Amino acid sequence: MSSFEETGPRIPVVEPTRVDKVHPRAKWGKSIRVILTVVVTFIMIIPVLVMIMTAFKSRADIVTPPPKVLFRPTLEGFLYLFTDRSLLSPTNLQAARANPGELDYWQQLALNVGQKINGPSDYVGRLKNSVIIAGTSTVLSVMLGLFAAYAFSRFKIAGKDDLLFFILSTRMLPGVVVTIPLFLLYKQLGWNDTHIGMIILYTVFNLSFSVWLLKGFIDEIPIEYEEAALVDGYTRLQAFFKIVLPQAVNGIAATTVFCLIFAWNEYAFALMLTSEKARTAPPSIATMLGSGGLEWSAIAAGSLGFLIPVAIVTFVLRDYLLRGVTFGAVRK
Amino acid sequence: MSASESQIRGPSTKVRQRHLSNQAITNMFIWPTLALLIAMNVFPLFYSLYLGFTNYSAIAQKAPVWVAFANFSKILNDKNLWQYFATTGRYALMSVSLQVLVGFALAMLVREKFKGGGVLTTLILIPMMISPVVVGLFWKLMYNPTFGFFNFLLGLADPSKSPDWLASRFAGHPVPGLALLAVVIVDVWMWAPFVMLLVLSGLKAIPDYLYEAAAVDRASSWFQFWRITLPQVAPLLLIAILFRTIEAFKSFDLVMGMTGGGPGVQTELISVDLYRIAFLGQFRTGYGSALAYIILIIIIAISNLYIKYLNQSKGEG
Fold this sequence. Notes:
Distance between the termini of chain A: 28 Å
Largest sheet of chain B: 3 strands, antiparallel
Largest interface: A-B, 118 and 112 residues
Oligomer: heterodimer
Number of domains of chain A: 3
Strand content of chain B: under 5%
Number of strands of chain B: 3
Strand content of chain A: under 5%
Order of helices and strands of chain B: HHHHHHHHEEEHHHHHH
CATH architecture of chain B: Orthogonal Bundle
């Protein structure tokens, strides 16, 4: 051992190891890596920064070349997003401007662009629908996926590969075509434009992904842990809940985030199977665009508001996402 | 564990009543999932297979009429459709391979812990959290040749001397393929973080002793990458590729938001065309269902190849 310490590895250790001697090159390597990461991250989020800027730009600032980095921020985009407005006729506009009366901030803002607020837009309710539908379906698909993934990972199941392939294949049919039969089925059940219908649809929509991803994570947990627990007198179910679940927490967190993102952002099904009561936000943002001129600031404001909840969940779960599975002494 | 065995052991006398056989647990665990998938996927699957053999139209007030293989033979002889398939294949190949390269590189970058690394990783993940249809629409603004940020940041501020990405023109001259490339760039921007995340969880699972052993053996970092890192990450990487390829073949929201298939048919992916056939104009539901089946068969064939490879690499590891 002492002879090894004297010489050390001749080639500098650049990969993470527990060998004590680290060559200076590895240290410089680390600072370069950090700087590079910061630069790359910045490049990756430039479009997001542009989105944030656009959300606070006025209509004129958005379409004036060259694109502006510095501008006077305004909340016009949020006004367009959250309120239902009508255009004032020139005479009414003059009258309103001459006699402003008691106007709150938003009414004043609307008046500045020649409009009058009629009430809140549908967007608020649709955001609420998104929370209910995406949240419930995510929990359901991760739970069901976890059970199925465990069974597929640990037990002998007749035709296992075929079943797994069947589960995966449910994700392959283009959604556009599944929608037609589903629409007819839902009509029979009275599920069109209901929360329950959308929750079940999104749960199924995510299940194949959740089973496959979780199976990958559970496969990595050494079977020896459970075997030891079984020998100690645990039942299978106890071993599952007390040994496997805590080990799979990273996988569960990662799967949750993915399922949530898919369900939260889904567009095609929501567009075709909902209209009023259960319509979610994405088709609502998209229809905002459909009406003649593109209201870029409203799109940006809507996307931003819609992005924040998912970003928060990801941020909260990031440790679980990133910690990775750590292995003890036992490994396959 | 048999009953007599568990009677010997202390804690299980209480537990024995709740003790379920592995078979019972298996059924309990997989049937809810299978039942849901059968109800919500197999039924629609058969129904649309039936529709594929009819001339049904969702807006016509007529019952479907059986036309046997007419839809399928029409599709197989349609040169335009094969062109769209080729476009979709090019799109899938370009965007998935770039996603894997970029995603892998990102994962290697943020792999080691450093201060603020977690925050940076979360920031990198933001693109894939945005709704694809919104991303498509928003990048239309980014790519705008006069007031978009994309050319501006590339230093191509003069619209007359710079590419108009979504129109497939460079300085006024048509450059076929530019629009498809633009869509690929956005797809890579959006989904490389997904590959990164999966690769990262694979990377973190590699036990340190493998690298220690390699260091003791004085293996170069190049050698370590090819012989330790890559093989250990391969299973998760292949899952990432599998999911991204399937999604690329179904890609719809993004292209619809950005180009709507244009200019001309340069970005007309097969699923965009499918949407046009099934939900616009005459609503040719039957014809669309037949086309969907052909797409499905192609996707299944590709996935099967992948899965074979996946199992093979697992067998080696």
